[in-house]
What does this fold into?
Amino acid sequence: MTTREHQQRFESLLREHRRIVFKVAGLYSRSAADREDLVQEISAQLWRSFDRYDETRAKFSTWLYRIALNVAIAQARRWPAMDRHEPLSSHHLDSIGSEPVAEPDERLEALHAFIGQLDALNRALILLYLEDRSYAEMAEILGISETNVATKISRIKQKLRGRMTAAETTGA
It folds into this structure.
């Protein structure tokens, strides 16, 4: 394959899967400017790593998620802890390719707030879980065991149920 064909193949695959890049960047960004920077950094790292992509070992989307999440998590760790996250809101959903909610939904807002408070790895797990990825694929993307994925997802769900129940009980 010529250099030009290699580049065209990369560009085609990236165009086909670009929503993944935007979803990851939207979930790990503090602002619109940070989101744009993160999209650029993820794209650059994907290009730098493309020579090592082996389609016989992983689907492109799995490989892309792994790189995008690693770049995003590394970036999130570099931000000062006090200024780490901007709460998820409808403009975040727009930027990550979801349909905005026509009327504010308190339960959905509470879910977004909960996700925004998770650490980087657990946010990645929830993103993949909400994307209906299998536990095996999540484990492969994140480099952890399927058992660890199942345990972490179960703990996140339990914590979320507790928060949602408490919010309904207190009316907050």
Observations:
- The two ends are 59 Å apart (CA to CA).
- Residues 3-170 form one domain.
- The chain has one domain: 3-170.
- DSSP finds nine helices and no strands in the chain.
